[in-house]
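name: query_chain
kind: protein
chains: 1
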Amino acid sequence: MVDAAWILPVAGGLVGVVIGAVARHNHFCTMAALERYWYANDGTRLRTWVLAATVAIIATQAMTLTGLIDLSGTFYLDPNFGWTGAILGGLAFGFGMALVGTCGFGALVRLGGGSLRSLVALIILGLSAIAAQRGLVAQGRVQIVDNLALDLSFAGDQSIGSLISAALGFDARLMTAVAVVAALLLWIFLNRGYRQRYADIGTGIVIGAVIAAGWAITSWAAATSFDPIQLEAGSFVVPVGDVIIQFLAFTGVAPDYGVGMVVGVGIGAAAVAWKKHDVRWEACDDARELGRHIIGAFLMGVGGVFAMGCTIGQGVAAASTLAVSAPVVMISIALGARLGLSYLLEGSIVGIFKTAHRETVR
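structure:
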């Protein structure tokens, strides 16, 4: 048996360095991907993001179905599906993401390049996430999310494969995984132009693979350690708060994989920014922008905990397990982001519906 106490944060740090460096070098950002898809009719970055999720699904399902890892202990597959948290939390996270201009992961990448605005956003996001997980806000979460969760124990867990298997009466997990992967790959590479974007394709493959590696690392640690180990692959909500707590008051408990990953992303992004001479100190232009970042970060912190993940936590890590929460949360995040952009650009969250109505009339 091995004491994995300090192996996990180091491994998470190394994985984070890779993701942070790749994301900084190739401008991997969920919010930017959605903006370009909606406003510039350019789906390149969105396809790269979906490719990362697809690669993570392939790697994770291959390890799971062959028995290399056991993810039954991850909270993403908990048979109690907090559908209210997935929807309300996703909407809040997406709206907050629009106000800040990026998600928690993107803020870390920007911080590596000297963005003090991102530092403010990360501090607020981390503290609000801790409050929503185990502070005063958590009391409301219990009532709104936990007490209204759907019991999917009849299927064993909340993975799409298990739910379909329960409905059909036979093990359809492999069939489900193949169908999902095939559909996603078809959408990604049906675009002829994207098939020539080798750097973007490489970015998606690397990020998806290293996120999936987190499952292997934490599964190994859980099987070889005397202490309970949380199975995780990557999230940038609660771990950001854990970094703050570790920095302020070390209690003797070693940092976990997620803490190492958060720190690693910042280091990797900073290294690339420094190498490319792209380090610029940036702050908020005025009090109004600062207020927008504070409110947006708070919404992301609370929303991320309610939804049990962010664009990476649910969009890539949870998606790799084929958890039913992943598509629900990501659709909610996308809708929340669209409403947030409507508020910023149209001056009203209903501006999107007015625009859609005008286009329909034309």
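note: The mean pLDDT is 92.
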